[in-house]
């Protein structure tokens, strides 16, 4: 049985504090600082290769910042950062090069779920632990040490439940802007949402990938508007805020009012998305917390130190309507 742990935003601050505690209990707390907390407690700098997906969205920028901050020299790390520009082959090549460089640990935010068995086996054979952050893989669990991220299916369910409550009793034509094909969040956000709207009067008339980017969301939405017309679409479900923001541009260019003529639901709750929600252009957003750096760094240290870790660490998300977004926006960290 997999052990599962849910962590709230407050607990993330706690985890950060724990990480600091771990650092300060290092054998030589007064030492120059550059190697503090490294090498699983033996004062060595930990070399970590991080294979990021790319830079497709606001969420991704916040996640990259969080990772770079946590895997800093002050925290005892030497970080080798690679962003694969959403190219799955390039991401696997990056992981292979980390193995060849003999890094201490590898962290991956896997672009897609499938295709990881070979390179994960190579890492295992080389004795290099792999920690996954953000997205999941379909590989057997013994090929990686731990995963930290979000419950994407639950995010989809929360979005779908809101849609069902708001629009379920009226004939509603919905189009979907999917995330990257084959990625865990695109798969799971579709599953959760579809189950939640089952049996309602919401009809999915089309669904296409916009690759989690603003440009992708805009051009797919332009196509939908061409095919169905402004009057033929009532609701957009976007798998992330960036695609919703692209859709807003397309809807406005078509002479319609986003959030009114065509309602929009999205996922992430990054700053620009929350602002659009406050402005009434998006109607509902489910959060996806990108601040996973401290937890990922803690897992790397624990795994290298031979400590028992939670194999699956879920960070909890919330959801926002316009009033909640207005209240939350000033204090948002991303
Ligand atoms: O929702 C999207 C990003 O994997 C959870 O990837 C992440 C998703 C996020 O590009 O904005």
What keyword list fits this structure?
six-stranded mixed beta sheet; alpha/beta; Rossmann fold; 11 helices; 13 strands; seven-stranded parallel beta sheet; 2 domains
Task: Please explain how this structure is put together.
It is a single chain. The protein folds into two domains: 4-151 and 289-317, Response regulator (Rossmann fold); 152-287, Response regulator (Rossmann fold, 3-Layer(aba) Sandwich). It has helices at 9-24, 58-70, 88-101, 117-125, 152-167, 184-197, 214-228, 241-253, 271-278, 293-304, 322-328; strands at 4-7, 46-52, 77-83, 105-108, 130-134, 146-150, 172-178, 202-209, 235-238, 263-268, 284-287, 312-315, 319-320. It has a seven-stranded parallel sheet with strand order 1-12-6-5-4-2-3, with helices on both faces. The chain is elongated. The longest helix is centred in the first third of the chain and has 16 residues, at 9-24. It is built from eleven helices and 13 strands. It is of the alpha/beta class. Bound molecules: beta-D-fucofuranose. Residues 56-57, 59-60, 134-135, 185, 212, 240, 242, 267-268, 288 line the site of beta-D-fucofuranose (GYE). Beta-D-fucofuranose binds at residues 56-57, 59-60, 134-135, 185, 212, 240, 242, 267-268, 288.
């Amino acid at each position: 049985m997999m052990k599962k742990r849910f962590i709230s935003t407050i607990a993330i601050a706690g985890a950060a504090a724990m990480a600091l505690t771990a650092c300060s209990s290092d054998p030589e707390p007064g030492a120059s600082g550059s190697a503090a907390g490294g090498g699983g407690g033996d004062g060595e700098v930990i070399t970590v290769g991080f294979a990021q997906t790319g830079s497709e969205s606001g969420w991704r920028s916040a996640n990259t910042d969080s990772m770079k901050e946590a895997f800093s020299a002050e925290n005892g790390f030497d970080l080798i950062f690679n962003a694969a520009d959403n190219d799955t082959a390039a991401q696997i090549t990056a992981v292979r090069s980390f193995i060849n460089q003999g890094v201490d640990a590898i962290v991956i935010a896997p672009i897609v779920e499938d295709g990881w068995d070979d390179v994960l086996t190579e890492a295992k054979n080389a004795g290099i632990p792999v920690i996954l952050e953000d997205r999941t893989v379909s590989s057997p669990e013994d090929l990686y040490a731990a995963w930290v991220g979000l419950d994407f299916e639950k995010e989809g369910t929360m979005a779908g439940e809101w849609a069902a409550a708001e629009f379920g009793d009226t004939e509603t034509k919905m189009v979907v802007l999917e995330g990257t094909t084959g990625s865990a969040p695109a798969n799971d956000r579709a599953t959760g949402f579809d189950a939640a709207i089952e049996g309602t009067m919401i009809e999915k008339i089309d669904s296409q990938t916009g690759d989690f980017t603003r440009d992708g969301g805009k051009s797919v939405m332009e196509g939908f508007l061409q095919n169905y017309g402004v009057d033929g679409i009532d609701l957009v479900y976007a798998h992330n805020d960036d695609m919703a923001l692209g859709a807003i541009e397309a809807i406005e260019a078509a002479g319609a009012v986003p959030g009114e003529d065509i309602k929009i639901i999205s996922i992430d709750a990054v700053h620009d998305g929350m602002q659009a929600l406050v402005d009434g252009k998006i109607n509902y957003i489910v959060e996806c917390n990108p601040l996973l750096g401290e937890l990922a760094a803690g897992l790397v240290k624990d795994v290298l130190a031979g400590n028992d870790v939670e194999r699956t660490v879920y960070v909890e998300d919330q959801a926002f309507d316009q009033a909640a977004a207005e209240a939350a926006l000033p204090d948002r960290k991303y």
